[in-house]
Write a structure and sequence with these properties.
about 600 residues, mainly alpha, 4 domains, elongated, membrane, mitochondrion, transmembrane, transmembrane helix, NCA2-like
């Protein structure tokens, strides 16, 4: 997040390279070469490496060493003095090195300030509730007991006493300096080394102490950022090499208001800043954080109580391991079930739908209407009733029953008569019953054919009806999976325009702090640094949570650009803040109770 902010912040400096003397309207990159030399090629390689490689302190150190070796080559002294293009290339390289080191210096202090602020908010959350403090005590109890035990053992070794309870009681009774009760308290509560007051012996006070120290550290880094930010306008004007050397001195010690121009050469100042000052500042920052114990609790420190009470899950894990064969078989069955569902209820029905649409229902004969099929069935019913009346001598009740059977497709009496006629075909032909049975069979075939054609006409409908339940199941599962993934990616909350609720709340607090800084303070170095720190979070929110390419994102980042502009005064920036509240308050949900109000 800080890298993106710094890249955007120093971009105007990287595009304003010095131009070739006598060709102010032409960029260096298109300057006409007078004579190609090894020195020019080496300078172009350095400039190309600065343009192509990601910015890092190691990469800058390599290019500085390359330029220093090149400057130490005495063969090119005459070329440097007489060739304007060579001078222009060197000036562009030097200016770019200064800008890149300026960006590295700002990014280092901005990252330290951001980390201090995040840790400060974490400690504030711990101290905000009794349950959080109690959990903090449980999580840190092993470390506290370990420090107390180590203090006791060191005291016993110093007095050449054995490690027994009697020796410990002896030292405590005589209140030896090595084992004074105050030293044991300080071992259990390290913040007492820095703030030994009676009320300090509470875990909540310990958390507040760490929060205060981190806030102080953040303010120091913010003040340094403010001093560094004031140098941007001077760098943009592409000053002379002597002025650049003075600016580099101020980068190493931003608290000094100015540095003497011409007091030292530029390349040694750049080398000292890159290889000495910045690494030393980072090491001093880490040492201070570790000395005061300001770091957040590590993963294992926070999670050991969970593992300590996880005996039932561990037992369940042991049972699962013992039953692994059954579990493997269950997983295999589940896989086959899922495969059968996908193929049998989703893929194959969809293929049938596609096949039906492609062939248009060919192969089933001409389509018929339902009325035609009904007429065939009625004809079949009349023929069957007549045959039963003439040949089987059915009564009216039997005929009514047969009519109902024909309606549902049951032609058992007629089929039995047909089977009897087939046994004596000649006699049945002479009697006429076989022919009538044959005509009934033909009518049956015609009716069934009509029914088949009618069903064929609805084949696509049936195909969609068959695949619809499977599609519904897949749709519901896909939607649930998508929501779970979105929730996990957004910190466990359902995502909406403007980010999750926690992200909108954080942006709301950042906006409030920006307005508070502008209203309550003049634009001092510390205020400017705190504004830059807040704007880093605000720009990160806009680039991370607003839809890329949308007008809301574009307008929001334009307003952030205005707040970053060092040429705008306090009154102008307050008007920008008012515009942001007015334009983005409702659009990003800052004013809605469900997104901000309940979380506050």
């Amino acid at each position: 997040m800080s890298t993106q902010f710094i890249d955007h912040y120093v971009h105007p400096l990287t595009v304003s390279r010095p131009t070739t003397p006598g060709e102010e309207k032409r960029e260096y990159s298109v300057a006409v070469a007078t004579r190609e030399t090894p020195r020019k090629r080496a300078l172009r390689e350095i400039l190309g490496a600065l343009d192509s490689k990601p910015r890092s302190l190691e990469a800058l150190k390599e290019q500085l060493e390359a330029l220093t070796r090149l400057e130490g080559d005495g063969e090119t002294t005459i070329v440097v003095a007489t060739d304007d293009e060579d001078q222009a290339i060197r000036k562009a390289v030097v200016h770019r090195l200064v800008v890149e080191l300026y960006a590295e210096t700002m990014e280092a202090h901005l990252a330290q300030a951001s980390q201090a602020e995040e840790d400060s908010e974490w400690w504030a959350d711990v101290a905000r509730s009794k349950s959080g403090v109690s959990l903090y005590l449980l999580q840190t109890l092993p470390a506290r007991l370990s420090r107390v035990l180590s203090t006791i053992l060191d005291a016993l070794r110093a007095e050449n006493l054995p490690a027994t309870l009697t020796s410990v009681r002896t030292l405590l009774a005589r209140e030896a300096r090595a084992l004074h009760p105050a030293s044991l308290l300080a071992a259990a509560f390290p913040h007492l080394h820095h703030q030994a007051r009676p009320l300090s012996l509470t875990l909540a006070h310990e958390c507040r102490f760490k929060r205060g120290e981190l806030a102080r550290l953040r303010d120091e880094r913010a003040e340094t950022l403010g001093h560094l930010a004031s140098l941007r306008a001077e760098l943009r004007d592409a000053p002379s090499e002597q002025e650049l050397a003075a600016l580099v001195q101020r980068m190493g010690d931003p608290s000094q208001a100015q540095a003497r121009i011409g007091s030292s050469a530029l390349l040694p100042e750049l080398t000292a800043l890159c290889t000495g000052v910045l690494p030393a500042q980072a090491a001093a920052h880490r040492a201070r954080v570790q000395e005061l114990g300001l770091l957040r609790l590590g993963y294992w420190t926070r999670m050991w109580p969970v593992f300590a009470v996880a005996h039932p899950p561990l037992a369940a894990g042991g049972y699962a391991w013992r039953s692994r064969d059954a579990l493997v078989e269950m997983l295999r069955d589940a896989r086959e079930t899922a495969r059968g569902f996908l193929i049998g209820y989703l893929i194959e029905p969809i293929k049938d739908v596609v096949r039906t649409v492609r062939t248009g229902g060919e192969g089933g004969g001409m389509l018929v209407h339902k009325e035609a099929v009904e007429a065939d069935i009625e004809s079949l019913e009349r023929m069957t009733l007549a045959l039963a009346r003439d040949k089987l001598s059915y009564t009216q009740a039997q005929l009514d029953n047969l009519s109902a059977q024909v309606r549902v497709g049951d032609l058992t009496p007629v089929m039995e008569m047909y089977e009897e006629d087939i046994r004596r075909p000649l006699r049945s032909v002479l009697a006429g019953s076989l022919l009538r049975n044959v005509f009934v069979q033909v009518d049956i075939d015609q009716a069934l054919s009509g029914i088949d054609r009618l069903l064929k006409s609805q084949e696509l409908t049936f195909a969609f009806v068959g695949v619809a339940p499977a599609l519904l199941v897949v749709y519901l599962l896909g939607g649930a999976t998508s929501r779970l993934y979105s929730s996990a990616r957004r910190g466990g909350r359902y995502y909406r325009a403007g980010g999750s609720r926690s992200e909108r709340v954080q942006a709301w607090f950042v906006m409030r702090r920006i307005e508070r800084l502008l209203v309550a303070h003049e634009l001092s170095a510390r205020t400017s640094g705190l504004l830059l720190l807040s704007l880093t979070h605000l720009r990160g929110y806009g680039e991370r949570c607003l839809l890329r390419g949308s007008r809301v994102r574009e307008g929001f980042l334009e307003d952030v650009d205005d707040l970053e502009d060092p040429e705008l005064g306090r009154a102008e920036k307050l008007r920008v803040v008012e515009r942001m509240w007015r334009c983005w308050g409702d659009a990003l949900g800052w004013g809605r109770r469900d997104s901000v109000g309940e979380a506050i």
